[in-house]
């Protein structure tokens, strides 16, 4: 009798998470461009300590006992949504431990084994994996420089309908997409919303990076264009404040928000963390911090892009207008899976492109995060990458 006999079939098949298996580094200390971590120098350490002291001094029972999550935070989220043109209502907001928790709750409410879920190709597999584990059949919709290919989406929806299949939802990252960096154009946003209404398909609009815009004007979210209740907008404080706080949220149709909440095991999120975020954000401090982040990450993105043009002139990429990543197409004939171990030997790590597709495609791409690595190391990292590419050929 083995403990593993008790595991469900889904649990038995699971591989260890990427985080649990740090690669065997070569002779030189590894520089990792693999993950979308915040730059530690931009974490507002002192202000958060100050905010923590203030909230506990104000009302220790409200903050450190079991209690509803902070109303102030929902008000703040609703205000930010209104600024984006979304007709926000605090009763239609769910606050959770990171947007990941919300994405992880979706299958409980929406997915039966065998159901179809549409995802971008490439996409953020961290989220999509949870849909797959719930038994969803994942159908990839291609992404190009303008984001999700709406003609392909239309054709897929049409074919699925002809086959009697109604997808449960479309998972989309419209702005500075993870991993491609692409931003869905205004016309395409309108088309996605129209298609969602026509086919009765929910759009899960995960806009984790929307505030980190380096250039150009903000685009309205799909949630602002939706008049019929087909969009669930998902956001996070991870990219604009601190990932370690694990505070994310969703806004959408009340029936869906209520059901997601019912599957959230701990009920409301811890009042300490929700009060802390609300306190930090007061008096325009969050918006000032976001302005600093945009400036900071734009400079690091430009630094990486210039280094790539110099060290890897045969590789190509679309310069992102914001976010954390450059999605690099490797020179002809170089495959990310074969390059990966060589890169580790050269002291550099990236996310292989096939980790960003639900069907294992993407071997000609790699995702490079410029967010965490100190600016002083980015050029060195790209130089090592250039050497690894040369060595792997
Ligand atoms: C597109 C996207 N959505 C969601 C998340 C998860 O964010 P959170 O920290 O809020 O769980 C990430 C983090 O990498 C992301 O890239």
TrEMBL record:
Pfam families: Aminotran_1_2. Its cofactor is pyridoxal 5'-phosphate. GO terms for molecular function: pyridoxal phosphate binding; transaminase activity. GO terms for biological process: alpha-amino acid metabolic process. Residues 46-385 form the Aminotransferase class I/classII large domain. Signal peptide: none annotated. It comes from the Bacteria. CDD domains: AAT_like. Keywords: Aminotransferase, Pyridoxal phosphate, Transferase. The keyword Transferase applies. InterPro entries: Aminotransferase_I/II_large, Class-I_PLP-dep_aminotransf, PyrdxlP-dep_Trfase, PyrdxlP-dep_Trfase_major, PyrdxlP-dep_Trfase_small. SUPFAM superfamilies: PLP-dependent transferases. Belongs to the class-I pyridoxal-phosphate-dependent aminotransferase family. Homodimer. This is PLP-dependent aminotransferase family protein. The lineage of its organism: Bacteria, Bacillati, Chloroflexota, Chloroflexia, Chloroflexales.
């Amino acid at each position: 009798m083995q403990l593993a006999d008790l595991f469900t079939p889904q649990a038995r098949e699971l591989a260890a998470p990427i985080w649990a298996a740090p690669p065997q580094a070569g002779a030189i200390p590894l520089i990792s461009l693999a993950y979308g971590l915040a730059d530690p120098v931009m974490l507002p350490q002192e202000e958060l300590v100050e905010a923590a002291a203030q909230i506990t001094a104000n009302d220790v029972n409200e903050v450190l006992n079991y209690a509803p999550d902070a109303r102030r935070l929902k008000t703040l989220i609703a205000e930010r949504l209104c600024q984006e043109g979304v007709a926000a209502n605090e009763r239609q907001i769910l606050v959770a431990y990171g947007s990941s928790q919300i994405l992880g709750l979706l299958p409980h409410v929406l997915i039966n084994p065998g159901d179809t879920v549409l995802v971008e190709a490439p996409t953020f597999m961290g989220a999509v994996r949870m849909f797959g584990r719930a038994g969803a059949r994942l159908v990839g919709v291609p992404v190009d420089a303008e984001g999700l290919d709406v003609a392909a989406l239309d054709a897929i929806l049409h074919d699925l309908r002809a086959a009697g299949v109604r997808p449960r939802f479309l998972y989309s990252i419209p702005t500075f997409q993870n991993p491609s960096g692409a931003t869905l154009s205004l016309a395409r946003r309108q088309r996605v919303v129209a298609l969602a209404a026509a086919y009765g398909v929910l759009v899960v609009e995960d806009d984790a990076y929307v505030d980190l815009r380096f250039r150009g004007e903000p685009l309205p979210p799909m949630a602002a264009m939706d008049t019929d209740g087909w969009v669930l907008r998902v956001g996070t404080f991870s990219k604009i404040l601190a990932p370690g706080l694990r505070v994310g949220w969703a806004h959408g149709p009340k029936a869906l928000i209520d059901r997601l909440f019912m599957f959230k095991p701990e009920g409301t999120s811890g009042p300490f963390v929700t009060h802390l975020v609300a306190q930090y954000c007061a008096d325009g401090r969050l918006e000032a911090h976001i302005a600093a982040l945009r400036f900071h990450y734009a400079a690091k993105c430009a630094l990486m892009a210039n280094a790539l043009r110099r060290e890897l002139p045969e590789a190509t990429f679309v310069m992102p207008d914001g976010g954390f990543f450059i999605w690099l197409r490797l020179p002809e004939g170089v495959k990310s899976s074969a390059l990966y171990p060589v890169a580790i030997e050269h002291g550099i790590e990236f996310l292989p492109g096939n980790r960003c597709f639900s069907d294992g495609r993407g071997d000609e791409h790699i995702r490079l995060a410029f967010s965490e690595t100190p600016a002083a190391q980015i050029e060195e990292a790209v130089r090592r990458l250039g050497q690894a590419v040369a060595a792997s050929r």
